[in-house]
Amino acid sequence: MSGKVLLSTAYLPPAEYFARMLEAEEAYIEKEENYLKQSYRNRCYILSAQGPQSLSVPVYLGSFHKTPVKEIRIDYTKRWQQVHLRAIVSAYSSSPFFLYYYEALEKIILKDHDFLLDLNMELLLAVTKMMKQRVKLSHTADFIPVADAENDFRYRISPKRKSDYLNKPYIQVFSRENSFTGGLSIVDLLFNTGPDIKNYL
After folding, report:
1. Model pTM score
2. What's the angle, vertex CA 8, arms to CA 26 and CA 107, rounded to 5?
3. What counts of helices (H) and strands (E) characterise the chain?
4. Which pLDDT tens digit goes with each residue over 100-136?
5. Handedness of CA 156, 158, 163, 165 (dihedral sign)
6. Distance (Å, rounded) from C-alpha 28 to C-alpha 39?
7. Residue 55: how many CB atoms within 10 A of its CB?
8. Pick from 38, 36, 28: which is nearest to 4 by CA?
């Protein structure tokens, strides 16, 4: 997979995800794996006045069976869209570039996508467009066995795993005593840096 990178599907993932993606000529998004709970596949972290806040997309899981990520359906019995959008507005409405990007993200989140994979891909494409980056994105056709390949980040970019990726500090809405919070959703970087986003990846 020379010049290519392998990533999991992810909901508004952190800056590292985009940095790895933009380093490659082509990015493959895994759709044949079994769904992994408590990962970026259905959650992201934003910076609120109280500190980092987790936003999770509720999903239906097949009982007692491993479910392929491509079959994971979003659970709309919970009002997650309103919760997420309210949290994003509360956290970033005073950020410098909020008005430039929020409406496009809001429209996608308010769509009733059946599958998590589709929601994530539409958001991913929207963010790369906002970044003015052309990225060749494809879904995997078959599951590629897990290996220690340098370009395989499916399980290395994880909220449970310490990353060696270093976020370049930038001014955040809720910075505390000149401290910087890394590992947040790309929306934190997008709303705070706008067109300069590439300089911080």
Report:
1. 0.94
2. 90
3. 5, 7
4. 999 999 999 999 999 999 999 999 999 999 999 888 8
5. positive
6. 18
7. 20
8. 28
B/e letters for 103-118, b = 16+ CB within 10 Å, e = fewer, are eebeeebeeebebbbe
Which of 69, 66, 61 lies closest to 11 in space, CA to CA? 69
Alpha helices per DSSP H over the chain = 15-23, 80-92, 98-110, 116-130, 186-193
Residues in the chain: 201
Question: Is 3 within 8 Å of 149 (Cβ atoms)?
Answer: no
Listed by start position, the domains of the chain span 4-200
Residue 12 tokens read as 């508004």
- On whether the CB atoms of residues 140 and 31 are closer than 8 A, the answer is yes
Q: Is the dihedral of CA 191, 193, 195, 201 positive or negative?
A: negative
